[in-house]
Each structure stands twice: as structure tokens, then as C-alpha cells.
């Protein structure tokens, strides 16, 4: 798939702050340091600049990135690496949800965040796919179970929910294995169990590595649902 450019659009803190619902959206959610920026950059062929979860002050917002936006709407930033010979995609949004486990925020803010997330999952009508990133070395933590619970309760059944295990190369030993990456059977079992407990037991699991590009095509199978919406 061809990604011509990725532009930061806005950081939303409520439904009213989201851009007009005029194209498909893919959400990436996961706690800080799970490997979200690395994965999105890997998937969209960015080197590092286009996308980072660590924009100062933006860590508690839903960060909207426009992929392949119309030239007229370009802002000052432009990322031009073109992949030859591949089919053009229409514009879609990648939305970075930082997760609400961020440190030291008042309860009230945490509640507002959770309310927005529930509202968004239930009511954002252009939402096509939710990628939930879980650290492939450790498996789900409490916050991941909370996210699964919210997804299980709020996400309409026609929106794809995909669990993405990150950093799989870190579990692999030896140069050959490192090219692929792996996840331990214990992590997988714990993950399946947590998914079942939170009523998302049937969701697909994709094992990925931003280092080795493992899982890139599998991510695109779902990303395409947003891109072609
Ligand atoms: P974010 O906070 O979720 O956006 O996480 P980052 O993408 O910034 O990654 C956090 C740290 O994990 C960085 O030091 C990355 O280099 C590292 N990292 C992310 N993905 C991978 C991966 O697939 N393999 C390895 N070995 N390290 C990774």
C-alpha cells in the first residue's frame, strides 16, 4: 500500500474536537512505551518524524493524523517518500489514543478520558478498526484489561478489533530467529484468557516487530478497511 504523506491534524479531547467524520479511521491504542510510534512508522514507511506519541502536551489527547490527505489541505509539514508501483490509497485517519494509564492525573480527568473513549468507541461512525497494542514480552497489564473491557462493552460489532503484540524480536534469540520474532506461549495464554474475560475472546492477534517489520502485511489487511472506507 502506498502512503504518500502523513500529517498531524489535531488533538481531540472530546467528540466535538474530532475532525469532520468524512473518511475511514483506524485507531491505535496502547500505553506509553508499548511501541506504538515505532509500529505506526513501520506500517506507514515513515522513518521517525511523521508520527510520535510523545508530542509534548499531546499525550492525553486523541491525536489525529491524516494519511494521504488532499494536497489542498496540506499544512507546513510534508513527508514524501513514495513507494513505487503500488496502488494509491484514499485518505484516511490514523488516531493515536495514548491510553489512560498515564501517570499522576486527577481522578476527574481520568474519568473524562474514560467517558470520551467510551463515547468515541460507541459513536464515532467512521471508525473502522481498533488496533490495541500489548507488549509482546510481558503480555497484558491491568490497563490492557480495562481497554478490552471498554471495547467489549462499547465497540459496535461491525468495527474490527485487533490485538497487536509488539516488540516480538526482543523475545527471539539468534540472528535467524530475530528476523522473525516470537512471543512466548505463556504470554499468548494469558492474553487469550484476558481477552475471554473481557468478552473480546474472538479478536485476531497479530505478532509484530517494528525492527524486523514482522506483521506489517497483517496490519495492512485491517488498515485497508479504514483506507478503503
Ligand atoms: P510509544 O511510547 O508506544 O510510542 O513507544 P515507542 O515506539 O516510542 O517505543 C518505545 C521504545 O521501544 C523505544 O525505545 C523503541 O525503540 C522500542 N521499540 C519499539 N518497538 C520495538 C520493536 O519492535 N523492537 C524493538 N527491539 N524495540 C522496539
Protein structure class = alpha/beta
Mean pLDDT: 83
Give the second-level CATH assignment, the architecture: 3-Layer(aba) Sandwich
Number of strands: 7
Any idea what the radius of gyration is?
17 Å
Counted by DSSP, the helix tally is: 6
The name of the CATH topology is Rossmann fold
Main sheet: strands, sense, barrel: 7 strands, mixed
Helix percent band: 25-40%
**Ligand species:** guanosine-5'-diphosphate
Written as H for each helix and E for each strand, in order along the chain, the element string is EEHEEHEHEHHEH
CA-based shape: globular
Kindly report the oligomeric state of this protein.
single chain
Task: Please mark out the parts with pLDDT under 50 across 5 or more consecutive residues, or reply none.
Answer: 74-88
What is the CATH C-level name?
Alpha Beta
In short:
The protein is α/β, with parallel strands linked by helices and 229 residues long.
Topology:
Elements: E1 6-12, E2 25-29, H1 36-43, E3 62-67, E4 92-97, H2 107-123, E5 127-135, H3 142-154, E6 160-166, H4 175-180, H5 185-197, E7 205-207, H6 216-227
Parallel strand pairs: 2-4, 2-5, 5-6, 6-7
Antiparallel strand pairs: 1-3, 3-4
The structure holds guanosine-5'-diphosphate.
Amino acid at each position: 500500500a502506498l502512503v504518500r504523506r502523513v500529517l498531524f491534524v489535531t488533538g481531540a479531547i472530546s467528540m466535538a474536537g474530532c475532525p469532520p467524520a468524512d473518511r475511514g479511521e483506524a485507531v491505535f491504542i496502547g500505553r506509553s512505551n508499548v511501541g506504538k510510534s515505532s509500529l505506526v512508522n513501520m506500517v506507514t514507511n515513515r522513518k521517525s518524524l511523521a508520527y510520535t506519541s510523545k508530542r509534548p502536551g499531546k499525550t492525553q489527547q486523541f491525536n489525529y493524523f491524516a494519511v494521504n490527505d488532499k494536497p489542498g489541505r496540506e499544512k507546513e509539514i510534508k513527508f514524501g517518500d513514495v513507494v513505487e508501483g503500488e496502488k494509491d490509497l484514499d485518505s484516511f485517519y490514523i488516531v493515536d489514543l495514548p491510553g489512560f494509564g498515564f501517570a499522576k492525573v486527577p481522578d476527574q480527568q481520568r474519568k473524562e478520558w474514560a467517558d470520551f473513549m467510551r463515547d468515541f468507541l460507541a459513536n464515532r461512525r467512521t471508525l473502522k478498526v481498533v488496533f490495541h497494542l500489548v507488549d509482546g514480552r510481558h503480555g497484558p497489564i491491568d490497563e490492557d484489561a480495562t481497554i478490552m473491557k471498554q471495547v467489549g462493552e462499547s465497540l459496535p460489532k461491525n468495527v474490527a478489533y485487533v490485538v497487536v503484540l509488539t516488540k516480538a524480536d526482543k523475545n527471539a534469540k539468534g540472528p535467524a530467529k530475530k528476523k522473525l520474532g516470537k512471543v512466548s506461549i505463556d504470554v499468548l495464554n494469558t492474553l487469550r484468557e484476558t481477552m475471554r474475560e473481557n468478552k473480546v475472546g474472538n479478536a485476531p492477534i497479530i505478532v509484530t516487530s517494528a525492527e524486523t517489520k514482522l506483521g506489517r502485511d497483517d496490519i495492512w489487511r485491517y488498515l485497508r478497511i479504514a483506507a478503503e472506507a
